[in-house]
Write a structure and sequence with these properties.
This protein has about 130 residues and is α+β, with helices and mostly antiparallel strands. The chain has 4 helices and 3 strands; from the N terminus they run H-H-E-H-H-E-E. It has a 3-stranded mixed β-sheet with strand order 1-2-3, with helices on one face. The protein is globular and about 45 Å long.
């Protein structure tokens, strides 16, 4: 969801070349699985690239503090887990493992994980 990351430019793709699903942290959630299953089963995508990035606001995220803040602002805690993480490489690997083990993505040929460095513009493969 970070505006510093332009996936079309990063992957040298044009509009219509790929489906892009973005969320806070780039973590694999139920809604990500829902969207990817539509892409894989209905639209026939054959490759998934999970791309997270350096300097992410969800890296080291304080969920307890956010729960308090949301309670103060909205009068209720978040109804979903925020899914912050402490280790970026491990989170990319965890996400790739979840995607590779998902039965609804069985027809996807290639699932890989990467980290985009927002300072250098480089894309590093983490889970090929």
């Amino acid at each position: 969801m970070d505006a510093r990351v332009d996936p079309w430019r990063l992957l040298r793709a044009g509009v219509g070349d790929m489906h892009v699903i973005r969320n806070a942290g780039g973590v694999v959630t139920d809604d990500v699985m829902r969207s990817l299953s539509v892409s894989a089963i209905h639209f026939g995508i054959r490759e998934i690239q999970l791309i997270m990035h350096t300097d992410c606001g969800m890296h080291g995220f304080d969920e307890a503090a956010f729960r308090r803040d949301m309670q103060d602002v909205a009068g209720m805690p978040p109804p979903w887990p925020m899914m912050g993480f402490d280790d970026l490489d491990a989170e990319v690997a965890r996400g790739v493992d979840l995607l590779r083990s998902a039965p609804m993505l069985a027809n996807v040929d290639r699932i890989s994980g990467h980290i985009f460095d927002v300072r250098t513009g480089r894309l590093q493969s983490v889970a090929a």
